[in-house]
Amino acid sequence: MRNRGNTAAYIVFGLIGVGILVNLLSNPRDILVPLIVFGGIFLLYKFPPNRWGKSRGYGARLAKGPKRKNAKFRVIQGSKPNGDEPPKYH
C-alpha cells in the first residue's frame, strides 16, 4: 500500500517531464522566456540589490538622521478609588 502513492507520483512527474521536453523541442521560446523571467526574479530574491553596493536609497537617509529620544512617562493620579478600600455599595 505504501508504494502505491510513490508509484503514482513517479508516473505524474514522469508525464510532466515528458510534456516539458516535448514542448521544449517543438517550441523552445515558450519555455525559455518564463524560465529566464522566473530565474531573474529568484536571483533578485536571493541577492537583493541593496547588497550589491552602497545603499543610497530612502533607508540610507533614515539611518543618518537624528536619533529619537525616549519619551519620559509620568503617572497621572486618577479619581478612581484605591483597590484596598471596600466598594461603596456594600
Kindly describe this structure.
- The chain is an all-alpha fold and 90 residues long.
- It has a domain at 2-55.
- Helices cover 56% and strands 0% of the residues.
- It has 3 helices and no strands.
- It has helices at 2-26, 29-46, 58-64.
- The longest helix is centred in the first third of the chain and has 25 residues, at 2-26.
- The chain is elongated and about 85 Å long.
- The termini are far apart.
Described by strand count, sense and barrel closure, the largest sheet is: none
Number of helices: 3
| Estimated radius of gyration | 32 Å
Residue share in helices?
Answer: 55-70%
Q: Residue-averaged pLDDT, rounded? A: 79
| SS-derived structural category | mainly alpha
State the separation between the terminal residues, measured CA to CA: 72 Å
Our estimate of the beta-strand percent is under 5%
Number of strands: 0
What are the secondary-structure elements, in order, as H or E?
HHH
Shape: elongated
Query: Which regions contain 5 or more consecutive residues with pLDDT less than 50?
Result: none
Characteristic key phrases:
single chain, elongated, 0% strand, 90 residues, mainly alpha
Write the layout of secondary structure elements.
Elements lengths: L1 H25 L2 H18 L11 H7 L26
Q: Would you summarize the structure shown here?
A:
The protein has 90 residues and is mostly helical. It has three helices and no strands.
